[in-house]
Amino acid sequence: MQTPFDEMNLATGGQRPHYDRYAGWLGAQPEQLMRERREQAELIFRRVGITFAVYGDKDSGEGTERLIPFDLIPRVIPSDEWRSMQAGLAQRVTALNRFLHDVYHEQEILKAGIVPADQILNNSQYRAEMHGVDVPGGVYSHIAGVDIVRAGNPDGSGDYYVLEDNLRVPSGVSYMLENRKMMMRLFPELFAQHRVAPVAHYPDLLLDTLRSVAPQGVSDPTVVVMTPGMYNSAYFEHAFLAQQMGVELVEGQDLFVDNGYVYMRTTRGPKRVDVIYRRIDDDFLDPKVFRADSQLGCAGLVDVYKAGKVTLSNAIGTGIADDKSIYPYVPKMIEFYLGEKPILNNVPTYVCRDEKDLAYTLAHLSELVVKEVHGAGGYGMLVGPAASKTEIEAFRAQLIANPRNYIAQPTLSLSTCPTYVESGIAPRHIDLRPFVLSGKNVRMVPGGLTRVALKEGSLVVNSSQGGGTKDTWVLED
What we know:
The chain is of the alpha+beta class. The chain is 30% helix and 23% strand.
């Protein structure tokens, strides 16, 4: 692996220009002050209830509520880098929405042989129930979270890559908003010294996006956030976004279908619902269509949806576009649907259903990262360079038994950012999840959620694996 690209520090000494002012400030801060600020942040986050549920805790055997560690040192992105990234994100999500419309309608990309038809039509994330169903504006993924990493080059520069696309129910935006609020509370002087692009208007953009995709003829739509309930790992975020948008937070039991429309129960009687920002997987949405044992959904919801009388954000069936086995084809989608070259590159990927790719992967397991195509949260993956021989051999058996279930990628030397850990300030690997909103327009707030692998040397940034988060600054000058 190459030496990691350091977001703040130059290999030759000193700081990158966009960090100069911040580095000067940081160097003048007493150690005791920083420790006190970190303790203060933890106390406030705990009081507010900003937690993340981790299931199957190995010590207790049960799920536990944990704080997501918050780091005091921001990740700073200069304005020119953000402009390029923003253009690449808009291009990518637009192409993915075009792809979703296509595979549920004419299937031109399959007929052209660009994406193998069996890889779509036999995929568990492909929902045949959506074939021929029109959704408002042709937009399937209204809220997308695109994971971006930066890898170092031999000349000391760094290039951005898309690591994966999250188009179903991407989470984490509440932490982005709360991180900014915390930084402004702890270090107000920094925001007087830097022109940091704001992110606090995200809930307004989200609500505007959801309202813009209401069913035809609805001029003043009623929007709700649908949650599986308080035991879901991201429940804090569901409640937070509903509160920030000023809309109702509902569970499946709060909704019912009557005479071709969806209603929610209120103290003033039934109220028609027009747009549902659902944080529930497809399988649990409607027991009449998907899992009959689901207690989380609303019976009859899919019929109303297919009739165009309610909008679901994100649409049913979006999972086919963030399946990791489909990811390698996204650059070709951009060229096919938009006639453009991708602005943001993919990480080179080996699709293990392909015999040659499988053979290469099996021969280089100790060098690669291997992931389940439907995996999430850092589970079901092998990080070859960090794995023992026993772990590699156990994973090899799984891979041989079910190669279609895996992809493999080079172990990128993810960029690092100075991070405040127990021993002081040290580099830790990071990624970035910008949130892209698609309605009548494609919009996003500057930056996103920076996740950080707090364990020294670790490349796994997921909160479920002990990762933390940072505030992300996009400079306006």
